[in-house]
Amino acid sequence: MTKLENSFYERPDVLKIAQELLGKLLVTEIGGRRTSGRIVETEAYRGATDRASHAWNNRRTRRTEVMYGAGGVAYVYLCYGIHHLFNVVTNVKDVPHAVLVRGLEPVEGIDTMLWRCGKQKLDTTLTAGPGSLSKALGITTELTGESLSGNVLWIEDALRVPRKEIVAGTRVGVAYALDDAYLPYRFSVRGNPWVSKGKGL
């Protein structure tokens, strides 16, 4: 399968991109180990106008600066000092849109994923949830800014999920965003067991 090109990420509609990422294959090649999973859940963040975004009101910090670059790179941040959360930067330079990947269905390198997570057997806790999937694929904040067209972390074109199979709901853990917390910006594949158990508002 071919890697998604930068033109996929640099489009203006982050909601459309978040939905079109469903079914695609997220891949890492770290320490000679290839691991991958099919994306089954995403959340869109619309930058400066979105109170749930780290870039709300054009906030620029050392952490968020990567969001202001052109789309097609990784934005990985630490949540609660524990979980590394992987986001895809989208749109063009100075428009800080991003898509959080929340759930993956494991495809390749499952033994490696289990080893990284200290698990003995495969179940949905392995990659259902943004912190879990990053750990399983070896994604850490060291990869923030990494090109998604490189050889460490990338997304391959794969299935296109039909619109009727996409469920929209509210995002998880963004109650601080006031009215924006209720926006239906979380997308998942209907009935897929690898969708996280996180409850939106």
- Gyration radius from CA atoms, angstroms: 15 Å
Assign a percent range to the helix content.
10-25%
Sketch the topology as an H/E string, one letter per element.
HHEEEEEHHEEE
Largest sheet: 8 strands, antiparallel
Low-confidence stretches: none
Enumerate how many helices there are, as a single number: 4
Structural class: alpha+beta
Relevant CATH superfamily: Methylpurine-DNA glycosylase (MPG)
Please give the CATH architecture: Roll
For the record, give the distance between the C-alpha atoms at the N and C termini, rounded to a whole number.
37 Å
Top-tier CATH class: Alpha Beta
At the third CATH level, what is the topology name? 3-methyladenine DNA Glycosylase, Chain A
Instruction: Please indicate the percent range of residues in DSSP E strands (runs of 2 or more).
Output: 25-35%
What integer is the average pLDDT? 96
Strand tally: 8
Shape, please? Answer: globular
Number of separate domains: 1
Protein name: Putative 3-methyladenine DNA glycosylase
Family: Belongs to the DNA glycosylase MPG family.
Enzyme class: hydrolase
GO molecular function: alkylbase DNA N-glycosylase activity; DNA binding
